[in-house]
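Please fill in the sequence for the structure shown.

STRUCTURE ENCODING:
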């Protein structure tokens, strides 16, 4: 009987980590694999052997890269980085942390499953030049989760990123330098476009649609 593989998710917010776990479940990866999680790139790895680390790019700092890269190298574990936008800057950061691949935080479940399985088999996964060009051309729109997902404005996309990691309207307003009422207006429009009425429904839709 094949032994279950172990996946470590590193992301700053619990809601975001739960979202990734939910996405892996929908992609047919979890619960056939054991999932561990942490909110720090410098946290100690679990005692169990880790076969894949999924890192959200927002958790990476210049100071944390050397120690993380060394630990990942010593453990001989593959690293997948999730980034909001697939561009040269994201690719550079992924290579700096020693990642074997990168994919978008807005990736659909089929692609997430394929990328995850590929890295678990020891392969790498990097976007080609044409994909990068398409990603840059779509920079003003949120990449749809699937063919039924709505397109968002650049501002709505920025707000959505904060909503996905569980930030409050006040925190979003502060980070984006806009009023709380403006944040509420953007969120109301996002909810309308996704045909949901609450943040919880929205996050569930983002991760399992």
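FILLED IN BY: designer on duty
SEQUENCE:
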């Amino acid at each position: 009987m094949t032994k279950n593989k172990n996946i470590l998710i590193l992301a700053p917010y619990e809601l975001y980590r739960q979202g990734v776990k939910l996405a892996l479940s929908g992609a047919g990866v979890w619960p056939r694999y054991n999932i561990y999680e942490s909110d720090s790139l410098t946290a100690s790895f679990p005692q169990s052997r880790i076969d894949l680390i999924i890192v959200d790019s927002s958790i990476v700092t210049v100071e944390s890269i050397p120690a993380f890269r060394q630990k990942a190298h010593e453990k001989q574990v593959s690293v997948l980085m999730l980034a909001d936008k697939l561009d040269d800057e994201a690719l550079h950061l992924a290579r700096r942390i020693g990642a074997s691949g990168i994919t978008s935080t807005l990736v659909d479940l089929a692609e997430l499953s394929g990328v995850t399985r590929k890295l678990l088999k020891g392969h790498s996964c990097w976007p080609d030049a044409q994909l990068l060009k398409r990603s840059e051309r779509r920079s003003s729109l949120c990449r749809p989760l699937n063919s039924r997902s709505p397109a968002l404005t650049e501002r709505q996309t920025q707000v959505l990123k904060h909503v996905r990691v569980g930030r409050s309207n006040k925190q979003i307003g502060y980070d984006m330098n806009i009023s709380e009422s403006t944040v509420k207006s953007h969120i109301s429009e996002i909810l309308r476009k996704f045909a949901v009425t609450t943040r919880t429904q929205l996050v569930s839709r983002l991760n399992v649609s």
